[in-house]
Amino acid sequence: MVTQRSAQRNEQAVGPFIERFAAVLVEAGVPPMPARVFSALLVTDSGRLTAAELTELLGASPAAISGAVRYLEHVGMIGREREPGSRRDVYLLLDDLWYEVAIRRDQVLAQWAVAAREGVKLLGPDSPAGHRLADSQDFFEFLQHEMPAVLERWRAHRAARLALEQDTA
Questions:
Q1: pLDDT digit string (tens) for 92-143?
Q2: Which residues contact 57 (CB under 8 A, 6 or more apart)?
């Protein structure tokens, strides 16, 4: 069944959009091929593609796709499932993707705070480097403290939006 939304999709614009969105991710520090793979998954209605489909869509080698999905899985941006009755893997976006990414980032912040705290002890809290590290530690701990409330507000916001979308559907 073709929905109103999918009928409006401009397939010729999809490829350039993948590249533009990937460029934004690259600017944020994501390596180029993982950024392209992630962007490709993001624009599919299903949010799921096989390695062969990614290879065809992006015009990339199977080895490049393999390395990209390995990276994206490692950083928690995508998941992998086995197609039922098949030996093929399907790469997929996580439900509430950005929430999951933020949760993982919170774990990274905890590691950064510990490392900064160790640096303060090593360099001394009164040294210029110790001051910078103490400020870094304070910032990371501040974000860790604030993150749960922000994420809870996101969950409430998302739930309200989804409920409204269901009511108007």
A1: 998 888 888 888 888 889 999 999 999 999 999 999 999 999 999 999 999 9
A2: 18, 40, 49
Contact (CB, 8 A) for 23 and 36: no
The encoded tokens of residue 68 equal: 């990209």
Q: Tokens 């086995």 sit at which residue? A: 82
Residue with tokens 């928690």: 76
Residue with tokens 């409330």: 149
Closest by alpha carbon to 91, among 136, 120, 57, 130?
57
- Please state, in angstroms and rounded to a whole number, the distance separating the CA atoms of residues 40 and 52: 13
Round to whole Å and give the CA distance between 21 and 42. Answer: 10
CA distances from 153 to 141, 149, 150 (A): 19, 6, 5
CB proximity list for 43: less than 8 A, separation 6 or greater: 14, 17, 18, 21
- For residues 104 and 100, give the distance between their C-alpha atoms in angstroms, rounded to a whole number: 6
